[in-house]
Amino acid sequence: MNVMQTATPAVSLSEKGLHVILADGQQAYFNYYWLRDNCPTSFDPATRERVFDIFHLDQPPRAETAAFDGDALMVRWQGEDHVTRMPVATLALYADGNRRPDPADLPRQAWYADHYPRMARFSQPELLADRGKVSAWIEAMIVDGVALVADMPDSDAGLTETAQLIGQVRPTFWGSYFDVRTHIKPTNLAYTAKALELHTDTPAEEVAPGVQFLHCRANSVEGGGNLFADGVAVANDFRAIDPEGFRLLSSIDIPFYCEHDGYDMRARQRVIELDDKNEVSGLTISQHLADMFDLPQGLLDDYYPAFCRFGKMLQDPRYVMNFRIKPGECITFDNHRIVHGRAAYSATSGERYLRGCYTDRAEMRSTYRALVGEGRFKT
Ligand SMILES: [Fe+2]
């Protein structure tokens, strides 16, 4: 009797996809649509965009034959004069259905009141000259959510060129830049000499800007100390001591507003923001811009105590970093994570002028990936 010794086939075809055994013995399944749509020939080398149109295939894609050839899987398609040469490295990356690794997905590190001496610091001329310093700056912004840029030029252009190292200046409904100093007819609490409670900016925008820059141009007043706290640190601790309050603040939207004669901005936001791993990624909070809560009054029996307990925690000296920003410094921070405020000051005691603008978090991460990552198309 003859016994045929056959090795396990490395590729077997089925109706909707194929099974393969990769080099490390890992068994994996790939859907035919996915294999056909992501054929390396689908992507234009100049634009790096997909130019293959899977919507216009006459039949669902199906392999006629498939076999490994060196470092690629060769797939000949039924009813099409086309062969896909899919690199084994690509198959290995997508075999388990996990998200593509993201170099900008760095773990957040919570910080407390004593963070000031350890806060990441950069010199603006060095940032302009060295892209490596820019990636270190963005890394600090992703991990800590805050960094200080010193040696800023005493000019409007200095702020613009600094912000543009991360992304485009992102306007809000107030425009591209804002001036924090005492205004004669203030439209915002920031434009007075009064104390400004810890908050995130422009919660009444549908999507509040992600990264804030505050460039100090003058600060000779009495008072006006800067207050910053890490929303992630506070919300993580709140989660531990009050899980039900945390659930309410991270699942119920509350209304925010910003209203004057010519505008009436409104948006609903969750105070505690969670990411797709269910970890705290940030906050949206502002007492001076919180609208009258239009939630069922019975729900407020539970919501308000949780909201106040959390707000009180935010102000706990354990979390609040106190310092005084100096002319020539620009504090840069994640507006969805770091809460900021200031003590009251005496408007007649000197001059206090901070000029600010925003960029977006997604664009900051894009810049970071471009600086440090391999990318799918980099050669
Ligand atoms: Fe603010």
Description:
- The chain has two domains: 11-94, NE0471 N-terminal domain-like, CATH 3.30.2020; 113-371, 4-Layer Sandwich (Double-stranded beta-helix).
- It has 379 residues and is of the alpha+beta class.
- It is 24% helix and 28% strand.
- Residues 1-7 have low confidence and may be disordered.
- The strands form seven sheets. It has a six-stranded mixed beta sheet. The protein has a four-stranded antiparallel beta sheet with strand order 10-20-13-18.
- Helix 4 (131-143) packs across helix 9 (361-372), helix 6 (231-241) packs across helix 7 (243-251) and helix 7 packs across helix 8.
- It binds fe (ii) ion.
- Fe (ii) ion binds at residues 190, 199, 201, 340.
Short description:
Belongs to the gamma-BBH/TMLD family. The chain has helices spanning 32-37, 88-94, 124-129, 131-143, 156-163, 231-241, 243-251, 297-314, 361-372; strands at residues 11-13, 17-21, 27-31, 63-69, 72-77, 83-87, 121-123, 146-150, 178-180, 196-199, 211-219, 222-223, 226-230, 253-260, 263-270, 272-274, 280-283, 321-323, 330-334, 338-342, 345-346, 352-359. The protein is α+β, with helices and mostly antiparallel strands.
